[in-house]
Each structure stands twice: as C-alpha cells, then as structure tokens.
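Anyone opening a protein record will find just a pair of labelled lines. A complete record is shown below as an example.
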Amino acid sequence: MVALLSGTLAAQSKPQPDPLFKTVQSLDARLFDAYNHCDLTVLGAMVSDDLEFYHDQTGLTVGKAPFLASIKQNICGKVERSLLPDTLEVYPLKGYGAVEIGIHRFHHPGHPEEGMGDAKFVHLWQEKDGVWKVTRVISYEHNHGLLVK
C-alpha cells in the first residue's frame, strides 16, 4: 500500500511542462523545419531584419538578407539539422523573450544516421505583440570538420 501511494504521489508531483519551454521548443521545430526544407519565406519571417549570426568558423553575419543568401548557397539540399532533444534549455529574458541553448546535429538530407557533426548554439528569441523572432544566434564548437556558413 505504501509503495502504491508513493508511486501515486510521485506521479502527481511531476512538474508540468513549462509554457515558455514548450513555446520555444515549438519555434525551434518550425524554424528548422523551414531550414531543412529550404523554405526561405518561413525562415525569413522567423528572423529579425537586424539578425546577428555569430559562427565560430565563419565569423559574424549581420542582417536577414545575407543570412538567407548564405542558407540558400550553403545549406539548401546539402545539410539538415536535428536538435538533440535532451540538450534543450530555455530561459526567460524579462521584457524581451527567451534564450534557447542546446546542441544540434547536422547530417546529409534524408540520412540522419550519417552525422556530419554536432555544434552548440544559443538563440535569442524576441517576442513583440505575440510574434516571436530570432534576433541573435551564436553557433559554436562545431566538430567533425563541419562547416556550416
């Protein structure tokens, strides 16, 4: 009886998913679905005009247009990204939005088992009038010779 009650209490006290975490997790999925399918319209709508993208191997890219051009030239049809789900962290930024931290894996399109390498990332998400956009990206510690511009 005690074991049954303790199991019931544990199930009842399990924390509910954080709404901000779920929001950012959903945004990440939508952003990288567009990335993986070269949907530059959706991708462009999800990043700010003054996007700053810091990459450990290619440096700084400023602005939406250069970012989208780089995706079109270097990513479309060549690279896909998968989030390593257990690595996702989300933190609120009061009066701004959220910071997303995690590790993602890059692979050849349609072949997630053929990993090209992993990298760590930080995304700053800004929420204005119910619309979320990525304003800053830091992508670093790329391994296995992975170069994503």
